[in-house]
Amino acid sequence: MTRILPLIALPLVLAGCAASGTPQAPGEKPAPAAAYMAVGTEPGWTLEITPERLSYAGDYGETKIAVPNPGATSAANGQTYATGRLSVAIEHRACSDGMSDRRYADTVRVTADGKTVQGCGGAILPPDTLAGSNWTFVSIGGAPVAPDRPTSLAFDGTRLSGSAGCNRFSGGYTADGRALTAGPLMATKMACPGAGMDQERAFFSLMATPVSIGFPSDGTMEITGTNGQTAVLRRAI
User: Fold this and answer.
1) What is the rounded average pLDDT of the residues 11-36?
2) Sign of CA dihedral 132, 60, 122, 80
C-alpha cells in the first residue's frame, strides 16, 4: 500500500557558475582537458582540437580527417584554423545543437575537403532557467546511481517532481535570483530492493539542509550540501 508522507520545505541556493571546458555528445567519454570539442548534426560530425592536431569525423563517422594543428589565428570574436583539407572558424556566440535544448558557448563552422558544416563547440552553457528542464541522476553522495532504478528530477513553471531511485516526490518551488526554495515536498513510501533505497536516503539526507547548485561545463548539474555531499545530475535530452 502506498502512503503519502510530507517532507520538510528545503531552501536551496542556486549558485551560478562560469562555464568553461569542453562539451561531449550524449554517450561519449569526456575529452582530455587540453582538447576543444565541437559537434554538429544533420549530418552528425565531431571535431577535436588538441595542441598537436585537428581531428574531424563527418557524415556520421564515415569521413575522417586528421591534420597537424597549424595554430590559431585571431578573428572577429573568435579564432580560425586553416589547413589544406580542414578549416575551422570558431565564433564566441551561443549556439544550439538543433536536436535538443542544450546550448554551447561557441558557434563553429568546419570546411572539410570543400564541404562546409556548422555546429556548436566549447563549454556547455547552463540553462537560462530551471523551469522546463529535466535531469537524471548520475551519482549521489559520490556513489553512482543504480542502473536498474530509473531516476529523474523535473522542473516546470511552479513545481518540481522526480525520483531518486525508489519513491516519487513532488512539490512547489520558487526561484529568486540565485535562491531557490522547494517544498513542502510530498513523497510516496514504498520499499525498494537493492541500492535504490540507499541512494534515495542519501539524496533526502542531502536535501535536508540548504544546498548550492552549480553547472560544470560538461553539461551536468551539481547539488552540494553544507556537509560537502553532492548529487550530480545530467540534462535529459
Assistant:
1) 48
2) negative
pLDDT at 11: 39
Distance, C-alpha 129 to centroid of its chain: 14
Q: How many CB atoms lie within 10 A of CB 151?
A: 22
Buried b (16+ CB within 10 A) or exposed e, 20-43: ebbbbeeeeeebeeeebbbbbbee
Q: In Å, how far from its chain's centre is CA 4?
A: 32
211-214/10-14 β-pairing: parallel
Cα separation, 40 vs 211, whole angstroms: 35
pLDDT of 12 over the 60 cut: no
Per-residue pLDDT tens over the stretch 172-215: 887 775 666 777 778 999 988 888 889 998 988 887 777 788 88
pLDDT of residue 21: 42
Q: Please choose, from the candidates 28, 43, 234, the residue with its C-alpha nearest in 3D space to the C-alpha of residue 140.
A: 234
**Domains of the chain in sequence order:** 4-17+127-235 (2.40.128.270), 36-124 (no CATH)
Burial of 173 (0-12, 13-18, 19+ CB in 10 A): buried
**pTM of the predicted protein model:** 0.69
Contact 57, 64 (CB under 8 A): yes
